[in-house]
Amino acid sequence: MARKIVVTGGKGGVGKTTVCANLGIALARMSHRVLLMDLDIGLNNLDVVMQVEDKVVFDLVDVVENRCRPSQAFIQDASEPTLYVMPSCHLAKRQISVDQIKKVVGRLEDNFEYILIDCPAGIDSGFRRAVACADEAIIVVTPHLSSVRDADKTVAELVGNTVVNVVVNRVRGDLVASGEMLSAFEVFSLLGQTALGVLPENDDVNCNVRKCSSAAFDMLANNLVTGKCEMYDCVTPYKGIFGKLRRKLKRNA
Ligand SMILES: Nc1ncnc2c1ncn2[C@@H]1O[C@H](COP(=O)(O)OP(=O)(O)OP(=O)(O)O)[C@@H](O)[C@H]1O
Ligand SMILES: [Mg+2]
């Protein structure tokens, strides 16, 4: 039976969809059977990030409303044969209940080892619907106080038996080394939840999801699978004399 994990974080734009997509790719590269499920209904873009938008014939709403079987809606990834994407629909006004989505997830969970659920921003009905389908949550947070505050509120909204793990995204090692940005460890301690991963700010993410720092995502996937706690080090390269030089170069870039 699949581990059902919602990728959430409260604040918009912190990287929930990016983490969902890249973590799915990293898990599939480890040969796990993974389904990425877009529950950001109306503002969905997981299909775009995963570059499958041209292949969408049916979506989650078609499955919920019995116009197709789940297997007709999910799309196999072009590079990773054990990775699938269940696209969502672009019509925000579709009323889909928690029970309907849970039923779909229930029909799929025996076919996958991991179901990663991309959650909408906020903590309202869309959030509740996504969270209700999962047993675990990955809280994506950036090293900014506004994001940490929203992540903290999100944790408080999660029901008691949801396992909570935290991923700090968009860490700039140069700014952490110069004391201008919160470190990932400060964020973990502010949230008081289990640390799952650290992801660097990476310009490639914006261009192509498959090009971004796979070392950090591999570490994240490995921690998720094994329960280990190895963190990607974005800061050490910016420490010491050479680090100072790198910081200067980065600042002027
Ligand atoms: N580590 C990173 N380095 C650089 N850019 C990033 C990183 N993570 C995410 N981004 C960029 O930030 C933007 C927002 O990311 P994403 O769509 O994943 O956020 P989100 O939390 O899913 O947003 P929403 O709340 O709107 O669903 C995107 O342009 C993405 O490419
Ligand atoms: Mg998103």
Give me the count of strands. 8
Percent of sequence in beta strands: 15-25%
The hetero compounds bound to this protein are: adenosine-5'-triphosphate, magnesium ion
Q: What top-tier CATH class fits best?
A: Alpha Beta
In total, how many domains does the architecture comprise?
1
Major sheet attributes: 8 strands, mixed
**N- to C-terminal distance:** 48 Å
The average pLDDT score comes to 92
How many helices in DSSP terms? 12
* Shape estimate: globular
Describe what this molecule looks like in 3D.
With 253 residues, this protein is of the alpha/beta class. It has a single domain, classed as P-loop containing nucleotide triphosphate hydrolases (Rossmann fold, 3-Layer(aba) Sandwich). 40% of the residues lie in helices and 17% in strands. It is built from 12 helices and 8 strands. Helix 7 links the parallel strand 6 and strand 7. It is globular, with a radius of gyration of 18 Å. The termini are far apart.
Topology:
Layout: E1 3-8, H1 16-29, E2 34-38, H2 46-49, H3 60-64, H4 70-73, E3 75-76, E4 83-86, H5 98-108, E5 114-118, H6 125-132, E6 136-141, H7 145-157, E7 163-171, H8 173-177, H9 184-191, E8 194-200, H10 204-207, H11 214-226, H12 240-252
Parallel strand pairs: 1-5, 1-6, 2-4, 2-5, 6-7, 7-8
Antiparallel strand pairs: 3-4
Helix pairs in contact: 1-11
In a few lines, what is going on in this structure?
The protein is of the alpha/beta class and 253 residues long. It has helices at 16-29, 46-49, 60-64, 70-73, 98-108, 125-132, 145-157, 173-177, 184-191, 204-207, 214-226, 240-252, and strands at 3-8, 34-38, 75-76, 83-86, 114-118, 136-141, 163-171, 194-200. It has one domain: P-loop containing nucleotide triphosphate hydrolases (Rossmann fold, 3-Layer(aba) Sandwich), CATH 3.40.50.
